[in-house]
Design goal:
609 residues; mainly alpha; Fumarase C, Chain B, domain 1; Fumarase C, Chain A, domain 2; 3-stranded antiparallel beta sheet; 12 strands; 45% helix; disordered N terminus
């Protein structure tokens, strides 16, 4: 099992990810750091700033793919970098560059044009300090993949930021050499992540190299890299939400895998219950055209093609609500996933920095830009910008919403789905629904006494206990107003806390679904004993057989005592085996298409006045 996946099943660390304060004895570095398995180290992904996909992000962050900078990304950063220097020469106020942060927003903090001794002296003084290495506290996020996801998004966003060439190339070098900043996420209100990328590039703070936590300067040295020297506004580039977006992208990937597994297990449940497939059929779905529910129905119906549930055997007219209504809950979860996916793609491929620096935008490009107030922030262009003009505007792009709304919403949809999973497991305990008595079937088909399924790790009290773990994770974290910095920073978002809760919800849901998998497989065995000619559809059959190679239906408990609980094995099997290995519906189109491209973060110029 992949090391990072193994760690997810070590519940001893879960308290830290729910925001629970750990004892002081839990010293920094006490939680093992989990390095990636660089299966795609030979692959290179080109970053443009506007079309990074979830799959590419996962390949970089989790599988070690290398990155290459497109000319478009390099030139975008270069143009913004020149424009901010030109703004200084023209006396244009720029927040965080020549004006102080927060409550000092009207105080001039930088004087002279970029060639002046006064300017150079202030830049040298400004970048002689420790940077942002003190942001956050507590233990580091103990997964290399999360830090690499942060770096990949941070680098992709440089297309829109006023970053020096050394800063941009430096992030690519960190990724390609395997140096990952140490990230302490607790204690930040989440209005920007204050990522430690720049701190590590300067050789300050701490970083991981080959799984070892080191002073950043030493990590760079071991990787064959050298610290960079900040220029221009490089020191301001910590105020992004790259950590939030990168982590969200990893979870978007994992949620999709979980939902694909749910649909496979759901199809197995229908086989196991000898269930009604009427709710999935075209006439029913066409008269209630919720696109994602229709998609879930079409996938599952397609998986069941060839199953005995279509052959006209005796079948009750109506299943329990928990099985019959699964289609609408699954559709809701898929739809919530799609919203989270789309928000994550936008966040990964745009700018979240204050200020916004946009070269080549002119006052005539949109009516408001020609007003006296906004013309104060228009840079006419000169030698430092290589003649380029543009606007530099203060903003609130650091606010991680709408992405965080979708992060927080998904556990609600997931919990609404998982409650039917738990309930449909319990319905197998009653012959009123199954019609068949499994115990009698086993008696009439003698075999080894050990049985993996109902009563041996599938459903029952374990599912109910896991459900109690999951329910609180659907509750949102209420937003608060704060009074930081004279009330200039007066709101919070705590996206990392919400992401950690989402990941915990995924882990618990996978465990619940593992119980359902065991129960469904057990009942498929029973149905086949009942009638050996029965077929179950290609996808459910493949998943059933794959599980049974790891966990036989029957075993001799005297000679084959299991060393791993059936529930743990089922959860780990689902975590490490993609469901599309058993079913990949190329002819069941995803609403809106798969591989959705985010809207391009480019101004729509208008001549309307």
């Amino acid at each position: 099992m992949r090391q990072s996946v193994r760690w997810r099943f070590q519940r001893l660390t879960s308290a830290a990810f729910l925001g629970v304060v750990l004892p002081l004895s839990s010293a920094l570095g006490a939680v093992p750091y989990h390095v990636i398995d660089p299966q795609k180290a030979g692959q290179t992904i080109t970053l443009t700033g506007h079309d990074l996909s979830i799959e590419q992000l996962v390949a970089i962050a989790r599988d070690g793919a290398k990155v290459h900078l497109s000319p478009e990304l390099i030139q975008g950063a270069e143009a913004s970098f020149g424009l901010i220097l030109e703004a200084q020469a023209e006396g244009i106020p720029v927040y965080l560059f020549n004006r102080s942060p927060g409550s000092g927003r009207e105080e001039a903090s930088l004087k002279g044009d970029p060639d002046s001794a006064e300017f150079k002296a202030e830049i040298a003084r400004r970048y002689s300090g420790p940077g942002y290495s003190e942001i956050g506290f507590g233990e580091d996020i103990p997964e290399e993949e999360v830090g690499r996801a942060m770096l990949a998004v941070d680098l992709n966003n440089m297309r829109y930021l006023a970053a020096s060439a050394g800063f941009v190339q430096g992030i690519a070098d960190l990724l390609n050499a395997g140096v990952t900043p140490a990230v302490q996420w607790r204690g930040a209100i989440g209005e920007a992540d204050f990522v430690p990328t720049g701190t590590v590039l300067r050789g300050r703070g701490f970083a991981y190299y080959k799984g070892i936590r080191l002073p950043a300067a030493e990590a760079l040295r071991r990787a064959g890299l050298k610290p960079i020297h900040f220029e221009g506004a490089d020191g301001n580039l910590a105020t992004t939400s790259a950590l939030t977006a990168g982590f969200a992208a990893l979870l978007v990937n994992d949620i999709r895998h979980l939902l694909e597994w749910h649909d496979v297990v759901w199809a197995m449940d229908l086989n196991a219950m000898n269930g009604s497939i009427g709710p999935l059929t075209m006439p029913v779905q066409a008269t209630r055209p919720f696109a994602w529910a229709n998609y879930a129905a079409a996938r599952t119906l397609d998986m069941l093609k060839g199953s005995y549930v279509f052959n006209g055997d005796f079948r009750i007219i109506q299943d329990p609500e928990s099985l019959r209504a699964t289609v609408w809950r699954a559709g809701g979860a898929w739809q919530a996933w799609s919203r989270l996916r789309d928000s994550t793609l936008v966040q990964m491929n745009s700018t979240d920095h204050n200020p916004t620096v946009r070269p080549d935008i002119a006052p005539e490009d949109s009516w408001e830009l020609s007003t006296p107030q906004l013309l104060k922030y228009y840079v006419k262009g000169g030698k430092y910008s290589h003649g380029k003009h543009g606007f530099i505007l203060s903003n609130s792009d650091w606010d991680p919403y709408p992405l965080v709304d979708d992060v927080e919403a998904f556990p609600i949809a997931l919990t609404n789905l998982m409650v039917v999973v738990v309930q449909r497991m319990h319905r197998f305990e009653d012959t009123f629904f199954t019609v068949t008595d499994a115990r009698q079937i086993l008696k009439t088909h003698p075999g080894p006494s050990g049985v993996n399924g109902a009563g041996a790790g599938g459903g029952g009290g374990a599912a109910d206990a896991l459900w109690q773990e999951l329910k609180p994770l659907a509750n949102p974290v209420a937003p608060d107003g704060v009074s930081a910095d004279k009330g200039v920073g007066d709101i919070d978002a705590v996206p990392m806390l919400k992401l950690m809760r989402l990941r915990q919800a995924l882990d618990v849901s996978r465990d619940i679904l593992g119980q359902d998998l065991l129960n469904a497989a057990y009942w498929m065995d029973i149905r086949q004993l009942e009638d050996p000619t029965r077929q179950f559809g290609a996808g459910p059959t493949a998943a059933w057989h794959a599980l049974r190679t790891l966990l036989p239906f029957r075993y001799d408990p005297l000679t084959a005592a299991p060393t791993v609980s059936a529930g743990n094995l089922a959860s780990a099997f689902m975590a490490t085996t993609p469901a599309d290995r058993f079913y990949s519906p190329s002819h069941v189109p995803m609403p809106g298409g798969d591989g959705v491209a985010p809207p391009r973060a480019e101004p729509s110029k208008s001549a309307a006045h």
